[in-house]
Amino acid sequence: MEMSSVQAMSQDQRERFQGLRSSELQTSALDVLNEYEEKAREYQEKLRELREHYIPEVKSIYNSGALINQLPNELLILIFRFVGPRTSPADAIRQTHICRLWRSLIHQAPTFWSDLLDAEDVLARTWHDNAMVLAAFDRSEPVTQIGFSMYGSFLPLLETVPVHASRISTLWLDAAVIEEQDVRPFFRLHMPHLEELTIWMWCSNKANSLIEPQSGTRFPKLRHLQTNCVRFSIAWINSTIRTLWLGTSRIGDEGNCYPEVCCQLRFVDQLLQVLAKCPNLTELVFDGCLSRTPATFGPCPTVYLPNLEVLDLRGASSVLSSVATHLVMPDSTEIALTSDTTPYYALSDLLPESGSISLSSVNHLSIELGRRLQYSNYEYSVWGGADDTGEYRLGLCSFAALPPRANSNNTTLGFDLLRFFQGFVPVFSPSSVTSLKITSFGSFHDSLSGGFTYIFQHYPQLTHLSLRISFFETVFKALAGDGVLTRLQRLEVCIDINCQDAALHETMVSMLEARTSRGLQLKSFLFSTDQEDEEGFLFNDKELLPPMMDDLVRRLGSIIPDVVIEHPEAPWPVPDPAENTSTA
User: Fold this and answer.
1) How many domains is the chain partitioned into structurally?
2) pLDDT tens readout for residues 87-102
3) Is residue 48 in a domain?
4) End-to-end CA, the chain
């Protein structure tokens, strides 16, 4: 037998086998083999101890020298919570694999795991997440009030841990996905500490149709309720409710679309009777939850909401008016009325005929026409508020399609700016409005109707006018008229980049000179260029034109104390003689 270059046994060990018979040789070899295997087990045990105890302990000692680990444990926990749980559950779990200290601190921090349960990136998505979610529930104890976000597929498992379910104070539940529509387990949960509930579901699902509506005592502490299902949620409303959102939002957080409305109420009086149960409401939103042809089964009560801060009603104009008519709110309530049926020339129809909405504090109007594709703006809207606070008291908005805007000759066909202004101007007092902002996206013109002349005459007290539009010829013509906006002190003009030309600049400067010659001098003037196209994207640098000519800037500086010329490639050089003129 050929021997290996590595001597496995010593000479003395090999001599033990010399002269032995076959059976004696095997017995002796077996004894030696057992000795070696025993030594191997001893060595393996020592290696295991080294790997599992000594090496990790030395690594832990090494890691303890890291600067971050010199921080107090409480501060480390705050850092761990900031890095992971609420924003990314995956990143949160990775922190437990960094070192023994981190893993130990995280496992012993209930707040870390309660954050994980209420992560922005929903943790409880499918059955694959069950073990992690249950571990998070266990480690979050003894936190008594926790937030939890989940999809409907997790409901059956949540039902098996009633102790944890009873600790939930904030629940976000999306059971609107087709394969997750069965919400019967939710109705069997005992949640006495639930304060905030957001639930998306379909009550028309065959399984859900068997559920009987439950009373508001099921959630005795409920303060916030948001859902697309009116059938079940209307029974949960009680005196503890502060925020009520029935229906659905067209666009949710970060552009995510919420589910469509699940069901609708037919009777307005039924809704008002429910609202009368919660006089402490601070925010009330109805979005498509009432039928387009509302009816009344009995008398409609007047609902007093003395603490209401926000009222947002969305639906057909007849629905908005019928609900708002019976609500009594403080003058400070911010109100938005949005319709998808009201034509552009009838925004005032959104207001209740009873005149229950006070607009005495409105001195600023912001008007928007059209919308940029990348934004979720209304087709047209009017917002009235207080110019000094920047808060809006009333918004009249519509998603109804606008008529055709212009033909090949750039002449308005269907849209009548005068009719649009006439449709809302009577709502706001001429003696109160001192600030006006008009913004348009698209080709809207006023070549024939005289809309600007009308609105300037209707609001003679204007001191501040801001224009971001694409049709300035008629605006400048209206401003040049005798006796127009005699109190105007500040003018802001943002011209569409496609409309920039020397002739338009000359017209604007000449108009301002004419007003000054009649004693109507501005105190400040801001001129800028709109550098976004109709879809909201920036134009290329090649398309950006310089601002107005130097001689025009000098002329402005000679008649207006404070002139600012803004441009994407600013600052553009301003002639020295106009020392009171600046660029930004």
Assistant:
1) 3
2) 667 777 788 887 888 8
3) yes
4) 95
